[in-house]
Specification:
This protein is of the alpha+beta class and 231 residues long. The protein has one domain. A 5-stranded antiparallel β-sheet has the order 1-2-3-4-5. Strand 4 and strand 5 form a beta hairpin. Helix 3 runs antiparallel to helix 7 and helix 6 packs parallel to helix 8. 28% of the residues are buried. The N terminus is likely disordered.
């Protein structure tokens, strides 16, 4: 009987039940590189099922991303690790990474943000298998995101329908890194989505949804535009 069950187990396809998160390969070294004055850091694991109103937040992630969620990297059970960096007792940075699907495989995008303003301090790829990898990793391209916040992404949504070509649209100033072939263009867009998702999750997990008024304003502008077109 034991042999029968052993054979049955071997014959049954293995199901990968664990959700796929995104963590730094070497947190101590990576964080020290980003923050040379670091003395300590803390890791906090965030999972929607364990959060208060987690189901509602997960539903809101899709609305704020403006696209369907990936069935592998963006499930309800996906874990997210937030790294808080300290110099002595002073909080000097927050680092967080996300996975998004690219043409050549998963893309891992990490952001370090200011713990007071939630502004991007640096943006880097931990993993990037793309025909446009060199262009996307270029420091001048990545530097365009420095000081941007989630509010700037939501304002971009607003300007797109209410004030196209507005000079106040900071995100519209971000330019793709040169001429990209179709697969590279796909990965460029995936990278932009990863930055946005990163900021949304940090807004949920760390900053108490401080950018929510800008999202609501953009949603109202889109709804108004839709009603105008239908009428």
């Amino acid at each position: 009987m034991k042999r029968f069950f052993a054979l049955l187990i071997l014959a049954t396809p293995v199901q990968l039940l664990a959700a796929i998160g995104c963590t730094l390969s070497n947190p101590a070294e990576d964080l020290k590189y980003l923050f040379p004055s670091m003395t300590t850091f803390r890791e906090d694991l965030n999972e929607f099922p364990r959060l208060k109103d987690g189901a509602e937040l997960f539903k809101g992630l899709k609305a704020r991303l403006g696209s369907d969620l990936d069935t592998i990297y963006e499930t309800y059970e996906t874990p997210y690790t937030v790294y808080t960096v300290f110099a002595g007792n002073t909080k000097i940075g927050i680092v967080h990474g996300v996975n998004v699907p690219g043409k050549g495989g998963v893309i891992q995008v990490f952001l370090s943000v200011d713990p007071a303003t939630a502004e991007i301090k640096s943006f880097f790829f931990q993993r990037l298998e793309s025909s446009a990898a060199k262009q996307l990793r270029d420091k001048d391209f990545r530097a365009q995101f420095t000081s941007l916040t989630l509010a700037d992404f939501y304002k971009h949504d607003y300007y797109a329908v209410a004030q196209p070509a507005s000079k106040a649209d900071r995100l519209a100033r971000v330019k793709a890194p040169g001429t990209l072939e179709p697969s590279g263009q796909y990965d460029y867009q995936a990278s932009l989505r990863a930055v946005r998702k990163n900021l949304i999750l940090l807004d949920f997990f760390v900053f108490g949804k401080r950018s929510e008024p800008f999202f609501l304003r953009a949603s109202e502008a889109r709804a108004k535009q839709t009603n105008t077109k239908t009428n």
